[in-house]
Specification:
alpha/beta; globular; Rossmann fold; 2 domains; nine-stranded mixed beta sheet; six-stranded parallel beta sheet
Length: 820
Amino acid sequence: MTKKPSTADLPLPTPRVSTPEILASEIIERLTYRIGKDVIVAKPHDWLTATILVIRDRIIDRWMESTRGVYNSGAKRVYYLSLEFLIGRLMRDAMSNLQLVDAIRQALESLGVDLNVIAGLEPDAALGNGGLGRLAACFMESMATVDIPAYGYGIRYVHGLFRQQMADGWQVELPETWLAHGNPWEFERREASYEVGFGGAVETVNGPDDKPRYLWKPAERVIATAYDTPVVGWKAKRVNTLRLWSARPIDPILLDAFNAGDHIGALRESNKAESLTRVLYPADATPAGQELRLRQEFFFSSASLQDILRRHMQQYPDFTNLPDKVSIQLNDTHPAISIAELMRLLIDVHGFDFDPAWEITRKTFSYTNHTLLPEALESWPVPLIERMLPRHMQIVYAINAKALLEARKEKYFSDNEIRHISLIDESGDRRVRMGNLAFIGSHSINGVSALHTELMKETVFSDLHKLYPDRINNKTNGITPRRWLQQCNPGLTGLLREAIGDEFLDDAEKLTALDPFAEDAGFREKFAAVKRTNKVALANLVYERMGIRVDPSALFDIQIKRIHEYKRQLLNIIEAVALYDQIRSHPELDWVPRVKFFAGKAAPSYHNAKLIIKLANDVARVINNDPAVRGLLKVVFIPNYNVSLAEVMVPAADLSEQISTAGMEASGTGNMKFGLNGALTIGTLDGANVEMREHVGAENIIIFGLTADEVTRARAEGRNPRATIEGSRELSQALSAIASGVFSPDDRGRYSSLIDGIYNHDWFMVAADFDSYARAQREVDALWIDQPTWYTKAVLNTARMGWFSSDRTIRQYAQDIWRA
């Protein structure tokens, strides 16, 4: 047999030339031979696909080079496991990072095609929900940019979260159909297919050394098949891989049943398997929903780990050096079951004893925590895991025994401390705490802002921190400046290049060179002109989609994020109602024209969040149609928030609303995107707002409200919100108007429970922070009137936001956690 040559001996394809003429020729070639269309009858979506294929070919050249380089060098690989990757549209991102935007534009113009028109047809990949998924996408791009070999692992959702529509102001969830016409960016990898099991039983057998070994025999098996999408770094220095798993049954159809007339039953296994990758975050209010969520998490975790171990064995004789060559980052608790699965694979499949397997596992995994909300730290009923993953439940008990014995014998933990660190919550129905499993099974646990990390040590993981005091560290989140400045705001990018040169394109922290221009009146005027152009674009989008006219010269006040009570969209709406009352009551005053924009999705089973969306729309309907307001205030809720919508809204914002209850937002990344694009922030000292204030200067950010410590103290003291409300005339009038049905004449009691929650316990400190928030908004008005001062602060925000680049974050992960 002929010896297979090494990768170093095989030639690489010759990189393609990328002049406009050659690009145009290749676009025609793809249109003709790959899509089967004549230029005469080609539609815009055909031109889009043909253009993507031409861009993709150039990515593949760098992709193969990157992959071979890692294999030949033996470099350590990072594997980023995340249930979400909110990557958005990819064409502009790829063109920009390949430095091909102008060449592609010219090539298409020569063919009579408008790049902007076809780029707008690309669907957003429905692979995420909010900040968690967008962070994963930014991190993947930054890992390629800073030259770290990496794979992202997730699920190839057919419908993703959901497409949000409004029906009389209520959120309606519809399936997202982003894959309906295929995905030209992805490559199916049939060779990367793995069996994933569920249910069944565990048998004990004698191993070759006469020690007992455990054999899991699943009752149900599905096949996970990989689909790869290349992720291009800046200037295509490296191209990494996003590998997403799709599920299919082992037997797609039961022919006997089908031929017997049971057509539905014959497809039962197929439908059951395919349901695994249909929807992101299926509602878990029912046992069936909980089971599907856990099945999804195990499905992608198991497939990813099998793939990682296979790749490792292609280069190395065994797994003893796995932590030296592999680092696996868990993005939140969703993939935490990976810890038990790696232990199972090492012990049951590859013959390791428990202790060496545990040492390898702990050194390989690291865990990013994204929440301080106990209810958001996943836990699963013990009976559910025992039934669905019986071998993993055994391993969880074994891990728990090891940790509890260590805590009791070496650290002399009390019974109460033991209860808190246990993987099994015994306080009610017995549940497995996935956050504790991720913590105990990882060598590093990081928070995502300085405040969040310190609060982790004091709250949700205080006893685990006492047991393992060296594990918690901070890695403040970041955003990729390629997507969130260069691509979404080309006008500002061009102005910055004209003022300070191109160094900031390679290193966002070089934006500090812009500082002196904040005092340059001519530069401020150009900066304001760019902002005005972006606001016109948003105003046009709102009119086209919703038929609402907004004035681009008004202050654009924007809050876009997942709808949740702790993020306090409700506080913003109540302040809008109070402002509405003031404008009508005092028409003689010079009110600043303002448009309050909202966008975001509520979880389908989150009643109060959906009620807040309805309230925003009800308030908008009344305010926007009241002639007494004279157009000085408008409220707009834009449906179906996604990355592409954010790319229009972020550059258009004058004011960024980051108003979560202090101590509850882990970091936030929207705050960074807005600041980078020259918006002023109004916010609490929560999450990364704390560090933003340090970087941009306290005088260039508007801070209000209780601190995290004050929130904790207020809750402990059980302060009476009713007294606070009655002591604030504006607040009490606004709450009364909402509760009495002023904004819901068709159902006057619609919001009574929402308002009662503020009167009775005010857990999210809406009443407690209202007066401070309202005063801060009037500070904003005064600043807006003084336009030179406003734009001085806006320029300084852009100049000082470079530290919040995800490139900096990833370098810190690589140095401190991954050792990559």
